[in-house]
Amino acid sequence: MYYFSKIIHAIEAYNMTPTSILILIASYFGLLVLISYFTGKEDSNAAFFKANKSAPWYLVAFGMIGASLSGVTFISVPGAVEAKQFGYLQVVFGYFFGYLIIAFVLLPLYYKLNLTSIYTYLKDRFGIVSYKTGSIAFLISRTVGAAFRLFLVAKVLQLLVFDLFDIPFAITVMITIALIWLYTFKGGIKTIIFTDTLQTLFMLISVVVAIIFLASALDLNSISDLITYTKESNLSKVFFFEDGNNSQYFWKSFLSGIFITITMTGLDQDMMQKNLTCRNLKDAQKNMVTFSVVLIFVNILFLVLGLMLTQYAETNGITASKDDLFPSIAMLPEIGIVTSAFFLLGLIAAAYSSADSALTSLTTSFCFDIIDIENKPETRRKGLRKRVHIGFSILLVLVILLFDLIFKDVSVIWELFKAAGYTYGPLLGLFAFGLITKAQIKDKLVWIIAIVAPILSYILNMYSKELFNGYEIGFEILIINGLLMFLGLLLIKKKS
Fold first, then answer.
1. What pLDDT, in 10s, does the model give residues 257-269?
2. Does the chain have fewer CB atoms within 10 Å around its N or its C terminus?
3. Which of these CATH numbers, 1.10.3720.10, 3.30.460.40, 1.20.1730.10, 3.30.70.100, describes 2-418?
């Protein structure tokens, strides 16, 4: 580590300027467009939606790391260490078991049915209203999730670059979305599999470079020094068993992690669309298991980075905190051009690796689930797909601008999971009911349950301390919402 840090410091002769940042961003996107040119030559719906089912599983696994983490993780996980220590790792351990459930329960089902949109399962199991309800729940969930992620990154870019050129935030957002549309509009998921691989690589390099610099600044000259430093820090506490009412209580975090994974990956068209590009079920399962193991270690890297950033800020009198911590330190003049450049590359890569696939999956779900593109004349399908792609690009711009009005001083990852708890809950309840029971339901009433369950969940969350003797609901709001949806479906069960 010592020698790597010396190399970095030797290169760092200049500092980042707004112009150099713009050149860096332009070069990066030039590379993505180049990849898009080669992968998007086959401008077909089969390539756009499923990559002709020919994607190598190891590329999908590596790319999914970046798509899962996103710019939110890149910024918010390190920024939350000061307040929440390493408690997030409890959720990550839950993720691991959630991914195993996806690999060995959900993926066999999806491959057996040969699905393009995973919500087609709901039509076969319950009926058209359940199918549309599940699809709409996803569209809302993914739009909100993608907007959250892009909102955070757009704010950082606005602060670092565009404010200095007096460019309004709305223009920054439009440019951001336009760049995503530019390299996805032809190749779709086929392009994204390759761009996500590149973006994951940039993101991981960025984290490692930042850790090397901070380790040198904190006089940690070896990996063993870094491990000892982390173990001895009072911020590295992982497990919280003391207070069941605490939002970070282990079992609450662990179980929430399992269900967050099942819903935000296993029941999410965005993440499953990548898995369904693999050649067969066995490859898809290898992808999921490999990805789940690697993801634990990647999240540990982010938490260690957060610990070091917090210590560096304290040592040097830097007052930034939460989501401002990493960007503020990474762009300091004394940090140097290499660390700053890799921070920006990592941030952009993390943001766009999740946002580009979100845009593609939204297009896929709307085309298959809402407008039934498969039953449209062949001559109209490509044009419809492209118009839907543009439509969701515009929608993301509008939602991000709305978030800019609503959210001011927040740690975005926690707000993201809160939102996911309400929007993904109906999907969790629907799929759980379909897989666990053999009962049929009154399909026409499903949409009512899908509205009532999140509302009741919100009320329970608002008054949890009063209702449950001081108990504070955290990420487990997703489980509660899914359970309420499940119980609601029992109420509308058909008599056998």
1. 898 888 878 887 7
2. C
3. 1.20.1730.10
